[in-house]
Amino acid sequence: MKITDAKVFVGGPAKNYVTLKIMTDQGVYGLGDATLNNRETLPAAYLQDYLIPNLIGMDPRNSEDIWQFFYRGAYFRRGPIAMAAFGAIDMALWDIKGKLANMPLYQLFGGKSRDGALVYAHATGADLDDLMDSIAAYVALGYKAVRVQCGIPGMPTASYAVPDKPGTNNNYISDFSGIRPKVEIWNTDLYMRFMPGALAEIRARFGPDLKILHDVHHRLTPREAAEFAKAVEPVGLYWLEDPTPAEDQNALRMLRQHSTVPIAIGEVFNSIWDCNKLIEQELIDFIRVAVTYAGGITHVKRIVDLAGLHNVRTGFHGAPSHSPISMAAQHHLNAWAPNFGIQEYLVLGTPACDALFPSGHKMENGMVFVSEAPGLGVDFDEAEASKYTYSPGSHPVVRLEDGTIWDY
Ligand code: CS2
Ligand code: MG
User: Fold this and answer.
1) Is 160 a catalytic residue?
2) Which residue from 81, 106, 149, 226 has the least number of CB within 10 angstroms?
3) Is the CB of 97 under 6 A from ligand 1?
């Protein structure tokens, strides 16, 4: 069996999705997602200029050898651009494998460990009253878990929380904002003084059953993170996410000495080497990698297995920048993984997105039920795709009030 061609599509409704389609001499094709948020043209170019010319003629069933060929054969390894490009190829090859076997991918991983997989939505508010309304609306929709982000009183600008209404896209990152990033100003003291009390009020309002998640978004130093985690311990968070810049794998040691709040990290990681120490030393409770950014299903399965050895559960990233293709791959992993935790679920879910990516996966009452179709269980409509073009966007850049660059 041979790969005969592969095409890359960049564009989509409200998002610059990077979709890979691999064709074979047996007529079976596979789909992959290489969407690296706000840097979409780079994995697309890596695929078009280097990877696809080498793919042609390879046997699509040899997904492990192809992964090793592109990873170890590249010499200069890892990084989000390369791993997103490999990730799309790997997803597409697994999609082909499932179609050849006439099985949904979770069956090839080892079958189902659960029917429904718990998901969480993003509740946001410009102030605490707004946020309470947003949480209440998601609870009314049947969500059992909600991430809560709030505008901070007196904060000069940055709060990465823009009020939205439940069921809409959490488009707090404008994809089509142009190549020059907005500059937001951040003040850690204001955040540290306000947020623990806000989280306590949310717990008091919604009771002990609601799973409350909060994302610090990499903005605290190790000492500040320890102080914050200690202050929020009585709230009983489901998790505290990215308390410190993720690449500093030692940063969580101090936090772990001062608080039992569960820690989730990993959405910016792109290989097992970014997180193996965090997992082996049990400095985290949830690993947040994404199938696109971390080299596809083959590599993420290795990370899930390592995490399982150390009582670390999955909490895959699922921001709006992930297309229904990589979310489908994650739905299959979530159905199988014995150490599944929760899935972030913000896929656009608009009629335009559903038309571009017809999918058999269902979300009901705060749970996702995986498709039983062979392969990924999602398709891609090239006629729909022709309606969209790439339009540059960029994450905001955050500075402190004295001008120091900080973490977005
Ligand atoms: C956020 C991300 O969902 C999350 O946990 O941290 O949405 C993040 O802001 C974006 O993926 C950045 O592109
Ligand atoms: Mg996050």
Assistant:
1) yes
2) 81
3) no
| Domain range for 177 | 109-374
* Domain identity same for 208 and 82: no
Whether 129 and 24 map to the same domain: the answer is no
pTM as predicted = 0.96
- Residue 40 in contact with ligand 1 by CB distance below 6 A: no
Same-domain status, 233 and 92: no
Residues 6+ apart with CB under 8 A from 333: 106, 109, 291, 297, 300, 301, 304, 314, 316
Active site residue 390: no
What's the distance, Cα to Cα, between the start and end of the chain in Å? 45
Q: List strands edge to edge, sheet with 183-186.
A: 183-186, 397-400, 405-406
Pairing outcome for strands 116-125 and 343-344:
parallel
Active-site residue among 214, 217, 317, 331?
217
- Does residue 87 share a domain with residue 142? no
**What does pLDDT average to over the chain?**
94
Q: Mutate which of 215, 291, 395 to test ligand 1's pocket (most atoms within 8 Å of Cβ)?
A: 215
pLDDT digits (tens, 9 = 90+) for 53-82: 999 999 999 999 999 999 999 999 999 999
Residue 275 and residue 189 share a domain: yes
Query: Lowest-pLDDT range, 28-42, 71-85, 146-160?
Result: 146-160
Task: Please tell me whether residues 252 and 303 are part of one structural domain.
Answer: yes
